[in-house]
Amino acid sequence: MVMIQWEFCSMQGPPQWKKVLGSLLITSKNPFDKGATRLGFFMNYGSHQRPNAEYLRFLNWLVGFTDGDGTFTINSQNGKYILQYSVAQGNRNSQVLYYIKKKLGVGSVVSSGKGMKVYRIRDRNILRSCIIPIFDEKKLWTVKNYDFEKVKAASEVLEDQELTTGEKYSKVAEIKEKKAPEFYVSPIWSGNNQKIDDDWLIGFCEAEGSWYLVNKGPERVAPAFGISQKKDKHVLETIREKLKITSKVKLNKKQGCWMLDTTNRRAVENVRVFFEGRLKSFKSLEFKLWSKAVYYYDRKNQKEVRIIREKLRKIKEWSDPGREPRRVTRGLGLREPGLPT
């Protein structure tokens, strides 16, 4: 007999969550048998069961944000293995963590060291039924996919009722010690599936991108956009093509990472148009100021550009560890960005 049973990850979560993800329980034994095998997967929607487009866009954004600032880890504590999905942010951007928590309907936000907060999920049932299906269906684009696959494999081992506790821990220990190959590339890059989704790119750049102003001589300050990666040069190359940036991806030997930077006027305008009104995190405030600088730069008003640069510097100073995020906008003449619902 084959029995199929839906188990939603959070009955307290938003309604659309119950339409998006679940876990499939398939067993050839009695459904109450402890030997039943549980497999996580992303639901195939019927015409009457499709989540709204906005929520699917959020999931794409979340994958991009995770590619930037998320982690999948296997840790040992008190003789047990703990699997964890987490996203860390400074206090000034902690709102985005609560946004993720609200949208998913699971997880918790906790303090993590001075000036840092972390959204995390450690419950294996929630990981198995909610988080793993997301990243199984919507693959990570960076080397972080390897860490996800490790957590997924460890989850399957720990749920295997045919193994003893000792056998489980031995197998998980082996998985934990595995390192990504030097030239590992996420399987999402295989074949012709290499078109980066807009929402993924927004999430990724909110985590990793930088909109800033740089000296271009004693008399000129220019708008610039930059993004870096320790590995995954191919990701930056694809972003470069999508945003029509003419600058080449270069290796910064001093910092040990690949960098994509541009002050090219046309490329800066492409970046401005692409991200305008689309950022969800605290960086939307920085982007708004940067966009004003682009406006004044085009009109050769260096005085206003320099004023905006000082405002951006104040944001950095006022967002040091220990300061409350909502104090950052004082004196800037701007409202703090609100996150979408």
UniProtKB/TrEMBL annotation:
The keyword Mitochondrion applies. It comes from the Eukaryota. One of its GO terms (molecular function) is endonuclease activity. Residues 62-153, 201-294 form the Homing endonuclease LAGLIDADG domain. Pfam families: LAGLIDADG_1. Signal peptide: none annotated. PANTHER family: INTRON-ENCODED ENDONUCLEASE AI3-RELATED. This is LAGLIDADG protein. It comes from Stupenda singularis.
